[in-house]
Automatic annotation (TrEMBL):
Name by which UniProt lists this protein: RNA polymerase sigma factor SigY
Tree of life domain: Bacteria
UniProt KW Nucleotide-binding keyword: no
Gene Ontology terms: biological process: DNA-templated transcription initiation
Single GO MF descriptor: sigma factor activity
Keywords in alphabetical order: Sigma factor, Transcription, Transcription regulation
Domain spans labelled RNA polymerase sigma factor 70 region 4 type: 112-161
UniProt family annotation: Belongs to the sigma-70 factor family. ECF subfamily.
Amino acid sequence: MDSDLIRRAQDGEDQALAELLKKHYSFIVKYVWKMSGDEQLAYDVTQDVLIKAIQKINQFNHRSKFSTWLIQIATHTYLDYKRKQKKKDKLDEKLRKEFPRSSVSFPSDWHEVQEALWKLEDEHRIPLILKHYYGYDYKDIAKMTKLKVGTVKSRVHYGLENLRKELRTDDR
């Protein structure tokens, strides 16, 4: 039955694709939940898996079961999430070092830091995130943003200054 749905989905039939993904949804949620031990994360990762499956349905080659293909996507998606979480944790630790508890009421979790980041202007937030969250060097950020290296350095600097001010004035 899956093979018929898959072929129809690969031919562009949205209803077949929806039915196929609905059929495997709880299987993927349970798999990710078992991997992570985190129910909400399981639902979040599963949503990403479904999006990737929709985008890549034509890459499924019928050599394995559809569920095996989905598990492969789920595993990679979960591992990507874990890598991103490590980067967030490193940024959080770096910010904790920048803002010692004695001088600042530092946010207790990443969400509060993210809220402060979102208050920054795009011109400062984007280079700051690319530098300190993703670890790109100034030259790469300059290429990505089509700015001069000096401009990127300046924006990262002012972004950090503004972030410090935002976190210091925060009454959390």
